[in-house]
From TrEMBL:
Keyword terms of this UniProt record: DNA-binding, Nucleus, Transcription, Transcription regulation
Gene Ontology process terms (BP): cell fate specification; heart morphogenesis; mesoderm formation; positive regulation of DNA-templated transcription
One Pfam family cited in the UniProt record for this chain: T-box
Protein name: T-box domain-containing protein
Matches recorded under SMART domains: TBOX
GO cellular component: chromatin; nucleus
InterPro entries, sorted: p53-like_TF_DNA-bd_sf, T-box_DNA-bd, T-box_sf, TF_Brachyury, TF_T-box
Entry annotated with the keyword Protein biosynthesis: no
SUPFAM superfamilies per UniProt: p53-like transcription factors
T-box domain: residues covered: 1-81
Native source organism of the sequence: Graphocephala atropunctata
GO function terms (MF aspect): DNA-binding transcription factor activity, RNA polymerase II-specific; RNA polymerase II cis-regulatory region sequence-specific DNA binding
Localisation per UniProt entry: Nucleus
Length: 100
């Protein structure tokens, strides 16, 4: 039987409900642990994925890198300046449709 993990949410906040907390500038390697239950002998198998190692970064010193993160990370879209957003009027709270 195949197993699929559609997505995993990562955070650097301690109150991330249902999210995995990471520390900035620490190296991580995703692993899957399979635990056999329901028998007298408990067995744990661990499958590391070294090709997916990464370093968590929460702040960038380079403005170009920050711009790229905002542009391509759907969770960073909130940081876009209104002037950079396409059709920024559509996202304004004060937007009213044209009167006829």
């Amino acid at each position: 039987e195949s197993v699929s993990f559609a997505k995993v949410k990562l955070t650097n906040k301690t109150n991330g409900n249902g999210q995995i907390m990471l520390n900035s500038l620490h190296k991580y390697e995703p692993r899957v642990h399979i635990v056999r239950v329901g028998t007298d002998q408990r067995r744990v198998l661990t499958y590391p994925f070294p090709e997916t190692q990464f370093i968590a970064v929460t702040a960038y010193q380079n403005e170009e890198v920050t711009s790229l993160k905002i542009k391509y990370n759907p969770f960073a879209k909130a940081f876009l300046d209104a002037k950079e957003r396409p059709d920024s009027n559509l996202y304004s709270r004060d937007y009213l449709p044209p009167q006829q």
